[in-house]
Design brief:
The complex is a heterodimer of chains A (423) and B (312). Chain A is an alpha/beta fold. Chain A is built from 14 helices and 18 strands. Chain A starts with a strand and ends with a strand. In chain B, the strands form two sheets. Chain B has a five-stranded parallel sheet. Chain B has a four-stranded parallel sheet with strand order 2-1-3-4, sandwiched between helices. In chain B, strand 3 (108-113), helix 4 (118-126) and strand 4 form a beta-alpha-beta unit. The termini of chain B are close together. Classes of the chains: A alpha/beta (423), B alpha/beta (312). The structure holds zinc ion. Zinc ion (ZN) binds at residues 151-152, 178, 230-231 of chain A.
């Protein structure tokens, strides 16, 4: 048994912190109470520490199978655990693509062997994520996938997308849309606007996202499907989602920490760690994303953890791949930029990183309650440190936050009653 | 000439990191260099023993020759590396190429590449001064310097001059560097071209005025600069065709009537005669297009001289 004493515990049901003890027995939380005494438990003094439900990430890339030089299930799970995550959902753009039951089983089995975090699999919408034929969604659902997505790719053909939605609507799992019209994004590298003009790089207009978000909202409406907009990045996207919610369309949305914190300005020195999709946008877009988060138009924060090796990223800007890692910086970056500065309420941030994402995938996780799985993160909010390459556990170090000063050090992560990270 | 400004070891990626007095120093130095290249014996020993590499990952014969000539006039050794038929095509990375050259003792790199930001990468890999000879659509600072020098020579200053640049603004690195440099030197720049070839937020990024009507754009201009229009943009759906383009944006004698009487006509070359500029203008007494080429060598000599630590 494990006893966490004297921490400020976040109670999801009441949306507040209370100074409590938590007793963990095996995989589960046995008791939550002000003064637990037992001599049969290993006791940790959590005085001054904050205790959250383990974070839940709805959008990450583990690169396994196929690109394990960037990341594999083990290194990804370790990195997630260090970031305080206890549940993560991995995208299917691996090699082979996760578009069939055997690849789903491979990831699930390996995840179970590694153990460091709960890994839920997102299956592809189309075979090979090629946007041509519907993938074997039904059998993958039997294998346990929690959502479908062609993330990294976007089905350009509206008819096929309509059919995917029709087909999936009977299964009640969400479709995660990476919304991008390729005729508009084409060879774009950074946001179309100030930075593309300044740097002379081809731009990706906000329209490339917004046109697809509009299309998918309309298709979700007529098919009565759950649509989840991945990594919303523009003001008009937020407006469209807000509109769709008002219409009663079953839509949810996510935003990433980097789109909330950074703008296209970060690309100024051609740092390829700032090259991502969708690209970092304008300050106006960033403010709209924050507002969308505050009024719950945007439901959750997801990392879009996208590892790439340094020899891929240390290239000419145009040749470097899109993406940034995110597990280990997500909470401290958000806490430092928004909670410490009082722009976002702490409770709101926690909801968007714990209980809300699990609702979207229909899992009963992300809450600290008696009888629930012991998925817990312990953080020292008064500790500041510099985010450096050396301490990153992901195989990849491609973060735009390198060198940033963060508050909030994750001291322990417990998943199913086992320590998966501990300083 | 001021010798207090220290150029030695500096990079030249873009003009934003150079001050007005530094740019004036470059002009003053170029003036002296121009006298040297007009002599019978066109060489001075200043950079003897220095080795300069020109790395052209994208072919541009004019710019490369101009740099190499400038280096040779100063008695530097020049190694010329161009990607055509080289190991780059066999998959050698930019990094390996620079490491290899660096091991051979290069003192300064001149870099041309189709991707913005590569000069910075070359410096990162080599830790030697790098001159940007054009990186994609981003920047072409020595071209802007020679353009500005050509005006400065004729007009004595750029202060309050109206400069109009006409053409494919979107794909032009020359425009970007000129917008930075010229507004820094006090000129007022108007850019003009089809809306599909105008980058977004350009008036916000630079101190520039945007105009889509050529006659309005050239009104009272002291300088008009034409830019090369490429047919491939038609295939991309950016404009209907060269003949319509020429009718709307071509520099003809008629257009000049709206500019100042002593207007100077410029073009960074190579020209499409009959498209963006008509021969009657290109060859008129207003044109300083040929002089720009000469000034290109002088400006590059001046920069190499200053950066490689030449003493005056
Ligand atoms: Zn995506």
């Amino acid at each position: 048994m494990i006893l966490l004493k004297n921490g400020f515990v976040y109670l999801s049901s009441e949306k507040k912190f209370e100074r409590l003890d938590i007793l963990i027995d095996g995989k589960f939380i046995k008791k939550i109470s002000p003064n637990i005494t037992t001599n049969s438990a290993v006791t940790y003094d959590c005085k001054g520490r904050y205790i959250f439900p383990g974070f839940v990430d709805l959008h990450c890339h583990l690169r396994d199978p196929g690109y394990t030089y960037k990341e594999d299930i083990e290194s990804g799970a370790k990195s997630a655990a260090k970031g305080g995550f206890t549940s993560i959902c991995c995208m299917p753009n691996t090699n082979p693509t996760i578009d069939n039951i055997s690849t789903v089983n491979y990831v699930t089995r390996k995840a179970r062997d590694v153990g460091k975090t709960k890994i839920f699999v997102i299956g592809a919408m189309s075979k090979g994520s090629q946007g041509k034929e519907i993938a074997n969604i039904g059998s993958m659902i039997k294998g346990g996938i929690v959502a479908i997505s062609d993330d990294g790719n976007c089905i350009q053909n509206a008819k096929l997308m309509l059919n995917v939605m029709r087909y999936v609507s009977i299964f009640k799992i969400p479709i995660i849309s990476h919304s991008e019209d390729y005729s508009l994004s084409k060879d774009g590298q950074v946001n179309y606007g100030y930075m593309s003009t300044k740097l002379g790089l081809p731009g990706i207009p906000t329209l490339a996202e917004e046109i697809m978000v509009s299309r998918d909202i309309m298709l979700a409406d007529v098919t009565n499907t759950n649509i989840h907009i991945a990594h919303a990045s523009t003001k008009r996207t937020v407006d469209l989602i807000r509109y769709a919610k008002k219409q009663g369309i079953k839509i949810t949305a996510e935003v990433t920490p980097h789109h909330l914190i950074l703008t296209e300005q970060a690309c100024e020195n051609f740092d390829t760690n700032t090259k991502m999709k969708p690209p970092l946008r304008s300050e106006q877009d960033r403010q709209a994303l924050i507002n969308g988060l505050l009024d719950d138009t945007i439901d959750i924060i997801a990392t879009d953890h996208a590892p790439h090796s340094d020899y891929e990223k240390e290239l000419e800007f145009i040749k470097a791949p899109f993406g940034t890692i995110g597990f280990e910086s997500a909470f401290p970056a958000l806490y430092t930029n928004f909670v410490k500065t009082k722009k976002i309420k702490f409770e709101k941030l926690i909801e968007k990183m714990t209980s809300r994402p699990t609702e979207i995938i229909g899992k009963e996780l992300g809450k600290i309650e008696e009888g629930k799985p012991a998925d817990i993160t312990v953080v020292d909010l008064n500790k500041s440190y510099t985010f450096t390459e050396e301490e990153i556990l992901s195989k990849s170090k491609n973060s735009p936050f390198l060198g940033n000063k963060f508050w909030g050090k994750i001291e322990m992560t417990i998943c199913d009653g086992k320590f998966t990270w501990k300083i | 000439m001021s010798d207090r400004l220290d150029f030695s070891g500096r990079n030249l990626y873009e003009l934003d990191s150079y001050s007005v007095s530094e740019i004036e120093t470059i002009f003053e130095t170029a003036k002296i260099m121009k006298q040297i290249i007009k002599r019978d014996y066109k060489k001075i020993p200043t950079l003897r023993g220095k080795t300069i590499a020109t790395l052209f990952f994208e072919e541009s014969t004019r710019t490369r020759i101009s740099f190499e000539l400038a280096a040779k006039r100063l008695s530097a050794d020049v190694i010329s590396f161009s990607s055509t038929g080289s190991s780059v095509k066999k998959g050698e990375s930019l990094q390996d190429t620079v490491y290899t050259l660096n091991a051979m003792g290069i003192d300064l790199y001149v870099v041309r590449h189709s991707c913005p930001g590569v000069p910075q990468l070359v410096h990162k890999y080599s830790n030697k001064p790098v001159l940007n000879a054009g990186d994609g659509r981003h920047s072409h600072p020595t071209q802007a310097l020679l353009d500005m020098f050509s005006i400065w020579e004729r007009k004595g200053s750029l202060k309050d001059l109206k400069v109009t640049v006409v053409g494919d603004i979107l794909h032009s690195r020359v425009v970007r560097s000129n917008l930075i440099g010229m507004s820094k030197m006090g000129a007022k720049v108007t850019i003009c071209g089809p809306r599909t070839l105008m980058p977004p937020k350009i008036e916000e990024v630079y101190d520039a005025k945007c105009e889509y009507d050529l006659i309005k754009a050239v009104k009272d201009a002291d300088i008009i600069m034409g830019l090369r229009m490429q047919l491939e943009r038609q295939a991309e759906g950016l404009f209907p065709g060269l003949s319509e383009y020429s009718k709307r944006y071509g520099l003809s004698k008629n257009v000049l009537k709206y500019a100042k009487r002593n207007v100077l006509i410029m073009h960074p070359g190579p020209m499409n005669r009959g498209v963006e500029i008509l021969p009657e203008v290109a060859d008129s007494e207003h044109s300083i297009i040929i002089e720009q080429v000469t000034n290109g060598v002088a400006i590059r000599m001046a920069i190499l001289f200053l950066i490689l630590g030449g003493k005056t």
